[in-house]
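hiii, so i know i said id send this last week but things got crazy w the move. better late than never?? heres the sequnce for the chain we talked about at the cafe, plus the structure i predicted for it. fair warning i was half asleep when i ran it
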Amino acid sequence: MCRILLFDLDGVLVDSIANVERHWSEWAKRHQLDVQQVLSSIHGRRTIDTIRLVAPKLQADNEARYLDDIQTLDTNGVVATEGATELLAQLAPEQWAIVTSGPATLARARLRAAKLPLPRLLISAHDVKQGKPDPEGYLKAAELMRAEPEECLVIEDSLPGIEAAHTAHIPAIAVGNTHPRAELKSAELWIPSLKLLSIIDTEEENEIALAVSE
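okay and structure toks below
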């Protein structure tokens, strides 16, 4: 039960992993970095934060801008995750928002490529001073949606995102297979895809009741 659903984007509403890993792999090879180490660090973090982590000697601002721009221009292979279209269709625009670690232009490009609706509220990497696992993004989304954190529910696919939700005192559902299920055990619930979620009617106004099918 909640009033507001706060979605992460990549790995939750859109499947962009092949596109993301292709561009990051090419970038890592160009800078003679360990590709697998880089790929293990990208999910759930802002581009600039990942670069600072894996390549602290590089100019993070410039490299992040390059990676974000090239992925905005190239959305090849980006599709909606299973069940995302159906779940969003059951929600009113004032009932959901997106909190992503990417820039707004990239997020909108991927939503359009996946043929998903644009949210009324999109909190992006440039809207916060600290990215996930810092709770700033989720707290800001709750405030702008005029909801208390405990009235919200986060749907995430990464540990930094779940940690951000919990630090904001918001429960979280972990979804998908971006990370092994065991790594996401701190979430209140794990499901393999959004296809298992549906909205059921309640007699309470401004309330969302989620049902999970087996």
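btw The chain has eight helices and ten strands. thought thatd interest u
miss u guys!!
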